[in-house]
Amino acid sequence: MRSSLRFVSVTAIAALLAAVPGSAQRTTGPSERYEMDVATASGFAAMTAGGRKPGVGGMMGMMFGGGPDNQVARTIELRLGSNQAPARPPVRADHFFPPQARLGASLPLWGPEPSQPRPREDGNDMPDNFERPKGRLLLYWGCGARAGPGQPVVIDFAKVAAGQVPPNLFTSTVPRIREVMASNSASYADWPNAKSSKAVPKDSSLLGAHRVAGNVGPEINFTLAQDYMPALNASTAMQGDGSVMIRWNALQGATGYVAWAFGGMDRGGGNGDMVWWTSSASQQFGGGLWDWLPPATVARLVTQKIVMPPAQTSCQIPAEVKKASGEMMFGNLNAFGPEASFAYPPKPTGNAAWTIDWTAKVRFRSHTMLLIGADFGGMGGMSGGSDAPAEKPKKKKCKGPLGIPLPDGTC
Predict the structure, then answer these.
(1) What digits encode the pLDDT tens for the residues 105-139?
(2) Helix/strand/coil for 303
(3) Which of 201, 205, 208, 214 is most buried, by the most CB atoms less than 10 A from its CB?
(4) Going by C-beta distance under 8 Å and a sequence separation of 6 or more, which residues neighbour residue 332?
(5) Where is composition skewed (Basic and acidic residues) in this entry (predicted)?
(6) Is residue 167 predicted with pLDDT exceeding 60?
């Protein structure tokens, strides 16, 4: 008993000492921050990854049986933020990759042009050609054969003020996480940009030493032991009860999954109901759910049943969702991945002050696009003559609810 009491006392004293001002380690900086977002896109998502327009050959290849395994693309996003002004404007930096990345000598990061509009940094940008939609938006959520109680939540566009997004449409629980932004940096540069963009080769590898050098701070050096995530291979199948089963391969390194789908966009000439469904067990749409998220955040969201756990490999879209959506649904499956963090100089031991020169973070994810209700392997009813394949895509223009821009690979 005495030994136990003595242990508690020492623990309590240590906690009190840690709370005394000046006893904890003081940290300053960093003066420079770097973020690198790495994604693997598969299926139809691969055909539009990095802003690329799908070619006729690629589309026809998919239609004649080319599945997600045959279409894989990789994308990289780079952001540099500093609290220093550039030595010589404009803001400029270069990311030097290991040779096996096959990205040339470097990728150039540039600061935004003075006249370039700054996008919203919450991930819910509205397009310049925004048009007030008609009809209604039906919101569904959760995996299962039938929709849960209280669904759908109906948003009548006629009752929404012109040009307004309905309040509480996007999740506030899962914000889009960006530690490096133009708004929190005295100097900012990114890639791809208006001056430079390129497709990442399929055989690219990020393993090895990386160096970032620019005119707004010290040189950044780190070594990656994590490479691109594997590709997601997802399939959908109609069930006898009218629901749709989504199945996918378990990915090594995945921390959790989330799926979402849009439907009804090809009905009523723009006046019909639009449908939006998410795999979350509660009403959570957009935000960080279709972006990159830290493993710790994903772990918390898994316990809240907002994100599916890494061991899960299937999810059922309720029958009510498919019925309300009509013939076609466009969907996505997002696999959140690991994260690598670096800082210089290394954290000192004890209570010595830690003055950080720079930090770097590399985030990974894998995602794929779902075409639900279209038999592209068998040409999906495209039997109306030689002109039918050219006309079909023109009819199926994917437009999200309220004209909301969808994430890469949705359309």
Answers:
(1) 999 999 987 665 555 554 444 444 545 567 788 99
(2) helix
(3) 214
(4) 45, 259, 260, 261, 290, 367, 368, 369, 370, 406, 407, 409, 410
(5) 118-129
(6) yes
Under 8 Å between Cβ of 28 and 355: yes
Predicted structure pTM score: 0.80
Q: 10 Å Cβ neighbour count for 366?
A: 27
DSSP state of 270: G
Candidates 100, 337, 82; CA nearest to 190 is: 82
Whether 178 and 78 have beta carbons less than 8 Å apart is answered as no
Q: Which amino acid is at 200?
A: V
Dig out the tokens for 407 from the structure: 């994430």
Q: Which helix (H) or strand (E) holds 45?
A: helix 44-47
Contact 155, 161 (CB under 8 A): no
Confidence of residue 162 (pLDDT cuts 50, 70, 90): low
**Which residues does residue 332 pair with via DSSP β-bridges, in sequence order?**
260, 369
Element counts in the chain: helices (H) and strands (E): 6, 18
Pair type for strands 92-96 and 107-110: antiparallel
Provide the residue count of the chain. 411
Which residue's structure tokens are 């109906």? Answer: 154
Position 71, amino acid = Q
Question: Each residue of 251-275: pLDDT tens digit?
Answer: 999 999 999 999 986 554 555 788 9
Q: Nearest Cα to 140, choosing from 235, 273, 271?
A: 273
Q: Residue 266 corresponds to which amino acid?
A: D
The continuous run of DSSP H or E covering 137 comes out as: strand 136-141
User: Quick one: tokens of 104?
Assistant: 């040339």
78 residue type, one letter: L
Q: Which one, of 285, 289, 298, 300, lies nearest residue 254 by Cα?
A: 298
